[in-house]
Amino acid sequence: MKGTYIFRQNGVELGRCENVITTAGKNQIAKSIANQNSQWAGSIAIGSGASAASAANKKLNFEYARGPVNSISYEVGVPQSNNIRLVAKAALGENISGQIYEIGIFSSSSFTSQFETILCNCDDVEGWDYQKADGTWAELIDLVDVNNNPIAGYSTTVGRAGNQSIYFSPLPTYSSGKRVRFFANFDFSEVSSTDTFSFAVQKTGGSAGNITVRFYTDETNYFTASLSTIASGTTTYTILESAKSSWSVGAGSPDWSNINFIEINNPEGNIYLDGIRVDNVVAETQSILVSRSLPSTIITKVEGTPLEIEYLLDLF
Description:
It is elongated and about 70 Å long. Strand 16 and strand 17 (221-226) form a beta hairpin. The chain is 6% helix and 45% strand. It has helices at 23-33, 112-115, 283-286, and strands spanning 2-9, 12-18, 20-21, 43-47, 63-76, 84-92, 98-100, 102-106, 117-120, 129-131, 137-139, 154-155, 165-167, 179-186, 196-203, 212-218, 221-226, 237-243, 248-251, 259-265, 271-279, 289-293, 299-301, 307-315.
């Protein structure tokens, strides 16, 4: 079997890439062909991670958007032989933006929110706050230097999952930290102890980086976790994962069903924060990753314009 993804915008091909078909994906395809009421193509997802594709993959490295497969067909005698080609088509909507570093086709037609959830893309439209040198909080988009000159707290230098990321370096330091907050109401009570919170970051070099995260019910009640240290001197785009079981109560009596804001602290100021998501282990059994690919040429999904994706699966 051989699979190929083709990207089109307004009918114009932007690129294509071949894939690795997963072990679970081969079984899913075989069941579908044998008419065992198994669907092999339900949705196509895009992500910002770049770990090598493997037949053992069960999810994308860092998925940030997904679109349902809207048509499935087959062709015989392609290419110029008696082979059968399965064709699945999907479209990513106008509201999605970002750079496609990885792509995968899943067996389930369910949307991302049912199994795996992107919490934020770290874009200015989300209205992040930062902690000022005096300990008070202000909107990140209004960040200024000591001379009251505007500074870009949001950066397009690293903005794979969405258009922007948050750069900690220009943030002022308060109590040995550089902190940002994202306000939204989250119910994490259904997140299991083995599910993970994933943070997409890029290191900018220098000393070893570290991140502390707090999930607040309110100012005096929160959970906390320290993420894996990022190696000194690297500039790698990294996905840091923390299982729910590894979080502890930082203060008071926080409530997993009532989290009202997230705080990120990077004292060294040497990372870009590109996105936060929840990865649910149930997804690996209910929505099979059939194939995964890392395009050799990065495709940019532009906001305001749909992107059509066609997946060709040649059965030998």
